[in-house]
């Protein structure tokens, strides 16, 4: 399917969708390093600009719109006016793109915390907004470890389908491939994901195989907890101390933090995917991304729907 990608970042979501056989017809992000990374690895067809400068009418026609949006503006005091809150500019742009371009489907990704804002009232308002724009909407809470990603990364995926296509949702959300209990298959551990990489302190030719020197000190706090080699990695983070520090998860050897390359592998980026920018920027790009392995599963469902549509047209 033809896809518009908003807030594309380094392209984790787009890469998976492309791997499944879809086409990105337009992409955008305002982070210069992320756009440079996208151009290096995926395509030159990405616009580096603030969305407030983008004319929605100028966007190409597409079957699907994808992207994430921040949730800072979904306050309890303003739940009925989320489209008017200036902090929700990105959400408003996503919503208006959907409303104006009327793609057959949309896919939105967000942090799991969006489900609890205002005791659940924020997500209800978001669903209501999308319904008003003409879409059947489903909300899925996902642990990426359940889909073969070596990381306990929990996210919310919102799927939308235009109401006039069919009265019920045709998009079949991907079935889990892995489980904590070993069914259908065991979770992938962080050791399985990164043990192939050489010692970064020894000469090697592995791309982006450098790491933050921020000292490993174990505390019961994000990015300071001990990493268990026999379990999936903790969530790869996008925030830090400004110098590539605490956003890097500790390696399970306890002696250092994950390299940029190891962090990317935990996020299921290919080993030849090269990240451009400072160390902290690279960590941030990786932490902000949707794991391509999971994105590919979403893309495969879009391909299935496209084939169903083609058969329907033939009939």
**Helix/strand/pairing class, anyone?**
alpha/beta
Could you spell the SSE succession in H and E letters?
EHEHEEHEHEEHHHH
What is the percentage of strand-forming residues?
5-15%
Helical percent range? 25-40%
Number of strands: 7
- Gyration radius (Cα, Å) is 20 Å
Biggest sheet, spatial arrangement of strands? 3-2-1-4-5-7-6
- Biggest β-sheet strands, sense, barrel: 7 strands, mixed
How many helices does DSSP assign? 8
CATH class of the domain at 2-179 and 291-314: Alpha Beta
The appropriate CATH architecture of the domain at 2-179 and 291-314 is: 3-Layer(aba) Sandwich
Low-confidence stretches: none
**CATH 4th-level superfamily of the domain at 2-179 and 291-314:** Vaccinia Virus protein VP39
Summarize this entry quickly:
By secondary structure, the chain is of the alpha/beta class.
Topology:
Layout: E1 2-6, H1 12-19, E2 23-29, H2 32-41, E3 46-48, E4 64-68, H3 89-101, E5 105-111, H4 121-132, E6 135-143, E7 154-162, H5 190-194, H6 260-266, H7 279-288, H8 292-314
Parallel strand pairs: 1-2, 1-4, 2-3, 4-5
Antiparallel strand pairs: 5-7, 6-7
Structure report:
The protein is of the alpha/beta class and 315 residues long. The chain contains eight helices and seven strands, in the order E-H-E-H-E-E-H-E-H-E-E-H-H-H-H. The chain has a seven-stranded mixed β-sheet with strand order 3-2-1-4-5-7-6, sandwiched between helices. Helix 1 packs across helix 8. The radius of gyration is 20 Å and the shape is globular.
């Amino acid at each position: 399917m033809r896809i518009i990608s908003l807030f594309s970042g380094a392209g984790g979501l787009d890469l998976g969708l492309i791997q499944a056989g879809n086409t990105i017809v337009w992409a955008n992000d305002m982070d210069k390093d992320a756009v440079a990374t996208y151009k290096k690895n995926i395509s030159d067809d990405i616009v580096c600009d603030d969305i407030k400068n983008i004319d929605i009418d100028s966007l190409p026609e597409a079957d699907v719109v994808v992207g994430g949006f921040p949730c800072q503006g979904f306050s309890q005091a303003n739940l009925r006016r989320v489209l008017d809150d200036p902090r929700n500019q990105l959400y408003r742009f996503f919503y208006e793109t959907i409303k104006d371009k009327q793609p057959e489907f949309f896919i939105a990704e967000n942090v799991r915390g969006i489900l609890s804002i205002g005791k659940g009232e924020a997500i209800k308002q978001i669903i209501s907004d999308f319904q008003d724009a003409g879409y059947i909407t489903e909300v899925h809470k996902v642990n990426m470890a359940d889909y073969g990603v070596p990381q306990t990364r929990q996210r919310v995926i919102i799927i939308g389908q235009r109401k006039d296509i069919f009265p019920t949702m045709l998009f079949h959300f991907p079935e889990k491939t892995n489980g904590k209990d070993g069914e259908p298959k065991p979770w992938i551990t962080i050791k399985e994901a990164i043990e192939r990489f050489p010692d970064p302190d020894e000469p090697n030719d592995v791309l982006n195989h450098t790491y933050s020197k921020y000292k490993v000190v174990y505390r019961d706090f994000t990015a300071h907890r001990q990493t268990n080699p026999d379990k999936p990695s903790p969530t790869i983070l996008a925030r830090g101390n400004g110098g590539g520090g605490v956003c890097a998860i500790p390696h399970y050897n306890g002696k250092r933090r994950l390299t940029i390359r190891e962090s990317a592998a935990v996020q299921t980026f290919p080993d030849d995917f090269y990240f451009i920018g400072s160390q902290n920027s690279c960590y941030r790009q990786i932490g902000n991304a949707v794991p391509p392995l999971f994105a590919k599963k979403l893309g495969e469902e879009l391909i299935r729907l496209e084939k169903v549509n083609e058969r329907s047209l033939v009939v």
